[in-house]
C-alpha cells in the first residue's frame, strides 16, 4: 500500500509504502518521531516500485534534508492536484496559495 501523509505542522507531504504493517501503524510511528500533526490524505494499491515511480514523478518537489528524509515533499500544485484526485472529499492548500479539491485548482478566497 502506498500512502500520502501530511505533516500539518511543517506543511509537507510524505509519500511512503507499507508492506507488513498497516498504514495506521505507520502513521502512529511517524507521529511519535515527528511530534507533529500527521493526517492521512490518501492511499493507493501498490508496492515499492509504485512508491519509487511517485517519488520520481514528484522529484522537483522533494525536500532533501538528509538521506532519511528523502520521501518528504513540499506541497506543490502538481502533488496536491494528484492527491486530491485520489480523495474527492479532501481539500489541500498548496505552497503556491492554490486550494485543491477533487483535482481542480481554485484561487484562495474565491
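^ Assign residues to that structure.
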Amino acid at each position: 500500500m502506498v500512502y500520502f501523509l501530511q505533516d500539518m505542522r511543517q506543511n509537507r507531504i510524505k509519500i511512503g509504502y507499507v508492506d507488513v504493517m498497516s498504514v495506521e501503524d505507520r502513521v502512529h510511528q511517524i507521529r511519535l518521531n515527528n511530534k507533529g500533526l500527521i493526517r492521512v490524505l490518501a492511499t493507493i494499491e501498490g508496492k515499492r516500485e509504485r512508491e519509487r515511480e511517485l517519488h520520481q514523478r514528484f522529484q522537483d518537489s522533494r525536500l532533501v534534508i538528509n538521506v532519511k528524509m528523502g520521501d518528504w515533499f513540499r506541497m506543490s500544485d502538481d502533488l496536491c492536484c494528484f492527491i486530491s484526485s485520489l480523495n474527492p472529499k479532501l481539500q489541500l492548500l498548496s505552497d503556491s496559495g492554490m486550494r485543491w479539491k477533487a483535482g481542480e485548482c481554485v484561487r484562495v478566497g474565491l
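The chain is about 30% helix and 30% strand.
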